[in-house]
Automatic annotation (TrEMBL):
Keywords: Transferase. One of its GO terms (molecular function) is transferase activity. PANTHER family: GLUTATHIONE S-TRANSFERASE GSTA (PTHR44051:SF8), GLUTATHIONE S-TRANSFERASE-RELATED (PTHR44051). Gene3D superfamilies: 1.20.1050.10, Glutaredoxin. CDD domains: GST_N_Beta. Pfam families: GST_N_2. This is Glutathione S-transferase family protein.
Length: 221
């Protein structure tokens, strides 16, 4: 049986899916499709056959079925590989909050990057673009703060069990403007993402797929 094929990109949300596949012990073929490299549009175009949205991640399942949407992919992988114990099951009391925050990160936060990364998509007027970027960043911070206030983490966001929600928040909190604002907005989540950064199972993975830059995760001065 064929394995997984992941369309991903270094420093993208697809890295959360890669991290999950690694922790699940599932091999995958990676097709690097950097959808945000304006100098090499042919790279991102590689994903078009799998995802007409021209976005990564897109995951081809062993059945050849294609899945897009990072939150849905992560949740589905947990259903397909329950032995990895990376999500509370349907009867687990933590399930509702798991689904709630997986959707929240995707819908309220990740989706804003479509505008933030290219404000001309919604603001053709050049003068309006920088203020729009700033509004997006404020909204992203506000959403992290709301999540921070509503969760009751233990060692991990949902309690004492690591889940793909921890991986997802860790990756999305690495997006611009990196962690500086995130730590200020979400102090309860800060030690959790740092613990995911430090997972021994992913020690070789992070530098390869979401490299650290000097000072990128410092607290604001
Ligand atoms: N809703 C999608 C968003 C995916 C997404 O925005 N991916 C980025 C990379 S982090 C991308 O490919 N952006 C290119 C674009 O939107 O043009 C998901 O959750 O998977």
């Amino acid at each position: 049986m064929a394995g997984y094929v992941l369309y991903g990109a270094v420093g993208s949300g697809a890295v959360a899916v890669e991290a999950a596949l690694r922790l699940m012990g599932q091999p995958y073929e990676l097709i690097e499709a950097v959808t945000f490299d304006e100098d090499h549009p042919e790279s991102g175009d590689k994903v078009l056959g799998a995802n007409p949205m021209r976005q990564v991640p897109a995951l081809v399942l062993p059945s050849s079925e294609v899945m897009t949407e990072s939150a849905a992919i992560l949740i589905r992988l947990c259903e397909l590989h329950p032995q990895a114990r990376l999500a509370p099951g349907p009867d687990d009391p933590a399930r509702s909050q798991f689904l709630r925050w997986m959707s929240f990160v995707s819908a309220a936060i990740y989706s804003l990057y479509w505008v933030k990364d290219d404000p001309s998509r919604l603001a053709p007027d050049e003068a309006a673009q920088e203020p729009l970027v700033q509004r997006c960043l404020e909204r992203i911070s506000d959403c992290w703060a709301i999540m921070n206030d509503q969760v009751e983490p233990g060692r991990w966001i949902l309690g004492e069990e690591l889940s793909v929600l921890d991986l997802y928040v860790t990756v999305v909190s690495r997006f611009q403007p990196r962690r500086k604002r995130f730590y200020a907005a979400a102090p309860k989540l800060a030690p959790i993402v740092q613990a995911v950064d430090a997972l021994p199972e992913l020690a070789d993975f992070w530098p390869e797929r979401y490299p650290f830059e000097p000072g990128w995760d410092r607290l604001p001065a």
